[in-house]
Amino acid sequence: xxxxxxxxxxxxxxxxxxxxxxxxxxxxxxxxxxxxxxxxxxxxxxxxxxxxxxxxxxxxxxxxxxxxxxxxxxxxxxxxxxxxxxxxxxxxxxxxxxxxxxxxxxxxxxxxxxxxxxxxxxxxxxxxxxxxxxxxxxxxxxxxxxxxxxxxxxxxxxxxxxxxxxxxxxxxxxxxxxxxxxxxxxxxxxxxxxxxxxxxxxxxxxxxxxxxxxxxxxxxxxxxxxxxxxxxxxxxxxxxxxxxxxxxxxxxxxxxxxxxxxxxxxxxxxxxxxxxxxxxxxxxxxxxxxxxxxxxxxxxxxxxxxxxxxxxxxxxxxxxxxxxxxxxxxxxxxxxxxxxxxxxxxxxxxxxxxxxxxxxxxxxxxxxxxxxxxxxxxxxxxxxxxxxxxxxxxxxxxxxxxxxxxxxxxxxxxxxxxxxxxxxxxxxxxxxxxxxxxxxxxxxxxxxxxxxxxxxxxxxxxxxxxxxxxxxxxxxxxxxxxxxxxxxxxxxxxxxxxxxxxxxxxxxxxxx
Length: 512
Ligand code: NDP
What we know:
With 512 residues, the chain is of the alpha/beta class. It has three domains: 3-257 and 462-472, Aldehyde Dehydrogenase, Chain A, domain 1 (3-Layer(aba) Sandwich), CATH 3.40.605; 261-445, Aldehyde Dehydrogenase, Chain A, domain 2 (3-Layer(aba) Sandwich), CATH 3.40.309.10; 487-512, no CATH class. Helices cover 41% and strands 21% of the residues. It has helices spanning 3-7, 46-65, 67-84, 86-97, 101-126, 163-174, 188-201, 216-223, 236-247, 271-283, 303-315, 333-348, 377-380, 396-404, 419-428, 463-469, 496-508; strands at residues 23-30, 37-44, 129-131, 140-148, 151-155, 178-182, 209-211, 229-233, 253-256, 261-265, 293-299, 352-355, 359-360, 363-364, 367-370, 387-393, 408-409, 411-415, 433-436, 453-454, 457-458, 471-479. The chain has a seven-stranded mixed beta sheet, sandwiched between helices. Helix 2 (46-65) crosses helix 8 (216-223) and helix 3 (67-84) runs antiparallel to helix 5 (101-126). The chain binds NADPH dihydro-nicotinamide-adenine-dinucleotide phosphate. NADPH dihydro-nicotinamide-adenine-dinucleotide phosphate binds at residues 155-160, 164, 182, 184-186, 215-216, 219-220, 223, 233-235, 238, 241-242, 245, 256-259, 290, 382, 384, 410, 452.
């Protein structure tokens, strides 16, 4: 019995997706290490996607009607379900994405933690609140509310098939929305598993989280299906297409796009710690991490020591599918081609290969490049492979300048023992997120928003901003007492304007 049959997802029964007739065929998802079929899934067409969204609408109402407490207990049941089956899901992630089982466990752990935070903080962040009505409306009560959008569409990538979509799904659900999730065609089994787990854990509002499977066409159909918002995580080129499709119906979007994240290593950094972090952030998950470090700028004082530390650590790493492997294969063959192009281009431009540089089918050796010109693709474009460029700079200011010269602006890291200096560099880094003396840590802090600037997108998931992202802000005023003079009436006395102007002069006129 195939995995998909075990999950009951091929026909969509367990995942709550549509029936067989509303599809245009099936596709296989395969293990990138062996080519073995992991599961067979329907290609949901436009009608099928619309039917799924239509089924999600009443579920969204029922889900919203549960209120913060009702949703919190059900989200807790869901995360309990995931936590109890963590190894089962990690095994599926390993087979479909290729990453080591232990890395999959880490990824799911982060997702569970975000589910916990979103569920338990939704009330605090989103509850209706009274705000000061101000001078002109002093006789009114002013209320601010964050209402759910209804059905939210989530389109996710394959590189972190649990953590990444859950950054939208958990927060959208906690804010009171139903979700229709379209996983990448490379990781549909993980997506279907997440939806099947929801049905099992939250049977009374099972349609609040559904999955549709297929390729880019299915994603495009979700953009046009009338969802209240579309949360997209993927590459910038696809993001542009998603925005164009959503523009047709003025569907708002959240764009979590790619990065070209840099690490700055300052004169006073703990060089060994910086090297260790750079190697992990650059090579883990075969470098297929949107917030992975791809460029390192090291001040000349510590450059050579840093390179030596990196070299020592990288020499012990190898890709593979066994327990001893540091990371897996490239999930998509086409990504290996991108890595090859970037390495070849860097070498042709005068860069030196410190380690690796070889791409064997889907297996990329851990690759460290030195002296690569800033104009080459390996420094400018997202490589998404187990590669690092290390560049010598005069000082941290030059490092920051080069970091900020890139069109992407997702995240980055600063290594320095001076707290003030490091925080100053972090603030001035043109990214949505920066970690000081560590890498990727912001992703593990549920209270912190996640998202980028420039080519890395806009909007935020995670944290209070992530909860509000999946709501519409509602402003209400309620007149408490009627005033003898109503300024917004054709019946106001002729002198009212003068009285108002005098009052404004008294209150604001003294400011120069
Ligand atoms: P893609 O942009 O290729 O695809 C992302 C998703 O969009 C997939 O589900 C894909 O489906 C779908 N899709 C493709 N075409 C369309 C379309 N026309 N309309 C709607 N949906 C469509 O990205 P990858 O899956 O290759 O993911 C890697 C990228 O994601 C990298 O650039 C990475 O940096 C970025 N990323 C960003 C993160 C962030 O939070 N900022 C986090 C993780 C990754 P299908 O796969 O079936 O084609």
